């Protein structure tokens, strides 16, 4: 029999060994199950919340045989106890519980809070308890929201907010008042979520309140909050309505009480007046401007009340809108406004000069029914006839007096008095190449329809050359232009009412230097005509106009041109940027008509409808034709808020202001200022006008130095003025006095051997003091400094005795005044020698004949002659400019150019176009705005 291989023998032995081991283990375990048991947790640890630094115990009890060992784990890591480290603050008790000598919670050491389990072991296995959390109780110091001081009125609800600091467990809150816990048995007091609410507050609720947060860590107090319960103001006496006459005195009385004591302010028509402590507002001399609603306003920390009374001023009637002279064609309607004001409202009636008949509002009209008076006093004459010409008188009557104003009605011949034609679109300057085509536009209108003819250099043109032809609407076309065509071309529009002309220059260039295409005016791109101009004001030399912009077509309107007809149509203003303008330098007692043209990037637009004829006032002007009621109303709504004046120097102050509810009628602002220091009483108001309504600042110059000025601002329109701003004061900077003390007198005192002198003086002139005199300095100067004697005295002193001088020494005595800015000019030295004869030395004014000597000098005479020559030449240039400017209408043109094919190949096809420019083959686009006037 063969022996099996070694590998097979080993396998057999291994199999037999395993069987033996298995048999022994089975016998062993049967014995264990009968005697021992694995661990079992019989008491699991419970969650704990412990304050930092306090002891704590996590219980754990296990059973088993043999007795199991217990270990603790925190957040998966084994807990080190005193058995592992004698210095550990954690101890493992015999029962298996984990005891903490003190709870550690901080950044320096590993904190104790976390999730814990206990594990019991013996040789039979492990047992793990349930998780138990150990949390550290916290209560931070800082409240998330502290209560704030609160002020309420009696009867109101007071609320004090409080959010306690963060803590664990969440802290509870309660309140203390004046260090005592707040009693919540009062139904008025509730605490929810830390917020304290006290309804229907009483004076006794006033006190110091503290919010308290508490948990197992302890208590935290919030910041203290003061609750103040005050009483609202209550009227004891209210002001009452009053009616007084102009210049009478009156009092408004108003009395209140409250806690704290209310302050009292008076307002008139929503404008603050001033504060009063005796509750009485006195007006010594009532004026028309004092009429209005006066409000007594009482206010303290918890409320305010107000009571009003109306003051009615009886006043004589005044005109709001005066009737203005009218020029009306036969058959049309004349309207004369006449609006008045007064207290009571005046009765208005009309009378024609020379007639005894009175016309009242709503009165039945005369026999033919053409003349009537409306409710607002406006006189209307319908279907005007020549017999209606004359003066009409408007009269207003009240118990306080009466006024009257008259206006003239001129009746014009509907045919005879028509103006000459108006050229709607005239020719424009242009440049053409030889062989080109020139087209000059000329569209005219008028009644009757005008005819159009053309002149070249003043000579009639048509019919002499077939190249010249008159196109539709009066335009002139020139075919095959030549160099000889260069010249001034004038369009003349003629009718039975007169003629009007418009000229333009034609330049013809040879060698085809540039092909030029005239851009014809297209009604779709030039601006539309503005509205009919309305007259808003008339004086003997000016007329104010206003209008509205026409239809918005093409580019925006950039300016307006105003033309006037007196003897002929003239351009009286151009580059006007707003829709209102005052035409000046007109002739007195002259009838004018006006038209307005708008200008945009494409050119000059069609004219507006003609204004109604208006006559300037005579040398003795009548009332100005303006809607005075509207002016006064709008000026009354303007509120000027003046800023604090800024002192720029010792003689100037800058005044700035803002305007609420600005009015179009504001012509400018009147700045009033007066001296309030250095005089026994405030000085008279001085006025400086700012005649630019758009500006809001002005510099007052030429002021006195170191003086307090009161300043206010007032809007105005002609004789109408708005309300003053609140007055403010400013003191100019002080300077050292600009003049020495006056009448300096030096006297020796006593015997010939005396060492004292008396010095007296008067202050410098008031206009040279440059501030408040604070002291006077006296210098007694000798040839040697060791003998100098100086003295200073208060500003109230006017004489002083100076001692300690040396006999036989000559002294120069000087006196000077000083302000806060320094010492001023010294007086002229007065020489005195002690021990000499007694002397009185008094300064006096010195004669000065040097002016007459200077005047006699040749250099002065030559200089004066040269200055006169310069003034004369400047005046002549001004006259020339004025005359040239008044010569006629302005015309704006737009040209379009193409670079020539001969000088720049290919430019013809580029059709280069420069907006509001002329294109030149060398320089490209150059500014080219052409302006030509009527001949």
UniProtKB/TrEMBL annotation:
Location(s), subcellular: Membrane
Membrane topology: Single-pass type I membrane protein
Annotated Gene Ontology cellular component terms: membrane
Origin: domain of life: Eukaryota
Domain annotation Ig-like: ranges: 39-135, 141-228, 233-312, 317-412, 421-507
Record GO biological process: cell differentiation; central nervous system development; chemotaxis; regulation of anatomical structure morphogenesis; regulation of multicellular organismal process
TM spans (from-to): 859-881
Record-linked SMART domains: FN3, IG, IGc2, IGv
Record flagged with keyword Signal: yes
InterPro entries, A to Z: FN3_dom (IPR003961), FN3_sf (IPR036116), Ig-like_dom (IPR007110), Ig-like_dom_sf (IPR036179), Ig-like_fold (IPR013783), Ig_I-set (IPR013098), Ig_sub (IPR003599), Ig_sub2 (IPR003598)
Fibronectin type-III domain ranges (all copies): 529-619, 638-735, 740-837
Main localization category: membrane
Listed name of the protein: Roundabout guidance receptor 2
Gene: LOC101080067
């Amino acid at each position: 029999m063969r022996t099996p291989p070694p590998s097979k023998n080993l396998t057999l032995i291994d199999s037999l060994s395993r069987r033996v081991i298995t048999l022994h283990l089975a016998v062993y375990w049967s014995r264990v199950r009968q005697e021992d048991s694995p661990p079992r947790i019989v008491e699991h640890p419970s969650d704990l919340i412990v304050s930092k630094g306090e002891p704590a115990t996590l219980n754990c009890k296990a059973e088993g045989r043999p007795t199991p060992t217990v270990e603790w784990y925190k957040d998966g890591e084994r807990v080190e106890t005193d058995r592992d480290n004698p210095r550990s603050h954690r101890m493992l008790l015999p029962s298996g519980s984990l005891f903490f000598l003190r709870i550690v919670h901080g950044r320096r050491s590993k904190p104790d809070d976390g999730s814990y389990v206990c594990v019991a072991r013996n040789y039979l296995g492990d047992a793990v308890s349930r998780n138990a959390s150990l949390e550290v109780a916290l209560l931070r110091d800082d409240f998330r929201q502290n209560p704030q001081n609160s002020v309420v009125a009696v009867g109101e609800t007071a609320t004090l907010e409080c959010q306690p600091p963060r803590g664990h467990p969440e802290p509870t809150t309660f309140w203390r008042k004046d260090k005592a816990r707040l009693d919540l048995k009062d139904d008025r007091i509730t605490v929810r979520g830390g917020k304290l609410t006290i309804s229907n507050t009483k004076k006794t609720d006033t006190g110091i309140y503290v919010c308290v947060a508490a948990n197992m860590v302890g208590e935290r107090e919030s910041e203290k909050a003061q609750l103040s319960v005050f009483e609202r103001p209550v009227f004891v006496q209210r002001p009452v309505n009053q009616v007084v006459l102009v210049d009478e005195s009156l009092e408004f009385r108003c009395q209140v009480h409250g806690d704290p004591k209310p302050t009292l302010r008076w307002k008139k028509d929503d404008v603050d007046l001033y504060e009063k402590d005796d509750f009485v507002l006195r007006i010594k001399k009532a004026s028309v401007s004092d009429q209005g609603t006066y409000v007594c306003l009482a206010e303290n920390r918890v409320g305010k009340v107000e009571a009003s009374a109306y003051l009615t001023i009886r006043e004589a009637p005044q005109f709001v809108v005066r009737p203005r002279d009218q020029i009306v064609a036969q058959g049309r309607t004349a309207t004369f406004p006449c609006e008045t004001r007064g207290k009571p409202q005046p009765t208005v009636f009309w009378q024609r000069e020379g007639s005894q008949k009175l016309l009242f509002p709503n009165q039945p009209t005369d026999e033919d029914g053409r003349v009537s008076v409306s409710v607002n006093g406006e006189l209307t004459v319908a279907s005007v006839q020549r017999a209606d010409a004359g003066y009409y008188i408007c009269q207003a009557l009240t118990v306080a007096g009466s006024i009257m104003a008259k206006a003239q009605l001129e009746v014009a011949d509907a045919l005879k008095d028509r103006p000459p034609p108006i050229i709607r679109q005239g020719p424009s300057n242009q440049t053409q190449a030889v062989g080109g085509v020139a087209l000059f536009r000329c569209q005219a209108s008028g009644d009757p329809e005008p005819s159009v003819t053309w002149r070249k250099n003043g000579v009639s043109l048509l019919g002499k050359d077939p190249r010249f032809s008159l196109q539709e609407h009066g335009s002139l076309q020139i075919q095959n232009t030549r160099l000889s065509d260069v010249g001034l071309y004038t369009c003349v529009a003629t009718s039975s009412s007169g003629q009007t002309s418009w000229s333009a220059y034609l330049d013809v260039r040879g060698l085809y230097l540039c092909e030029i295409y005239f851009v014809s005016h297209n009604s779709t791109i030039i601006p539309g005509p503005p509205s009919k101009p309305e007259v808003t004001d008339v004086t003997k030399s000016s007329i104010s106009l206003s209008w509205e912009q026409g239809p918005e077509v093409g580019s925006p309107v950039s300016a307006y041109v105003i033309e006037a007809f007196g003897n002929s149509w003239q351009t009286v203003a151009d580059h006007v940027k707003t829709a209102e303008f005052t035409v000046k330098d007109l002739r007195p007692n002259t009838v004018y008509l006006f038209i307005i043209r708008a200008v945009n990037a494409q050119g000059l637009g069609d004219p507006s409808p003609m204004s109604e004829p208006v006559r300037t006032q005579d040398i003795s002007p009548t009332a100005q034709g303006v809607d005075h009621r509207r002016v006064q109303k709008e000026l009354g709504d303007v509120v000027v808020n003046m800023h604090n004046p800024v002192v720029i120097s010792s003689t100037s102050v800058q005044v700035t202001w803002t305007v609420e509810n600005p009015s179009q009628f504001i012509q400018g602002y009147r700045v009033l200022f007066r001296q309030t220091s250095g005089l026994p009483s405030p000085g008279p108001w001085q006025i400086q006008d700012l005649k630019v309504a758009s500006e809001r600042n002005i510099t007052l110059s030429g002021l006195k130095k170191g003086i307090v000025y009161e300043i206010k601002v007032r809007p105005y329109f002609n004789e109408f003025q708005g309300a003053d701003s609140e007055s403010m004061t400013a003191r100019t900077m002080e300077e050292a006095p600009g003049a020495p003390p006056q009448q300096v007198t030096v006297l020796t005192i006593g015997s010939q051997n005396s060492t004292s002198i008396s010095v007296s003086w008067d202050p410098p002139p008031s206009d040279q003091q440059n501030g408040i005199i604070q002291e006077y300095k006296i210098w007694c100067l000798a040839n040697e400094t060791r003998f100098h004697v100086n003295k200073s005295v208060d500003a109230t002193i006017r004489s002083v005795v100076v001692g300690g001088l040396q006999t036989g020494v000559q002294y120069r005595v000087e006196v000077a005044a000083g302000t806060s800015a320094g010492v001023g000019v010294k007086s002229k030295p007065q020489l005195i020698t002690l021990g000499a004869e007694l002397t009185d030395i008094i300064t006096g004014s010195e004669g000065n004949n040097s002016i007459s000597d200077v005047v006699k000098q040749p250099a002065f005479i030559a200089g004066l002659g040269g200055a006169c020559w310069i003034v004369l030449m400047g005046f002549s240039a001004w006259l020339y400019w004025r005359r040239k400017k008044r010569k006629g209408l302005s015309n704006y043109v737009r040209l379009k150019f193409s670079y020539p094919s001969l000088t720049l190949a290919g430019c013809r096809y580029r059709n280069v176009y420069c907006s509001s420019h002329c294109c030149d083959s060398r320089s490209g686009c150059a500014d080219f705005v052409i302006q030509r006037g009527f001949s």
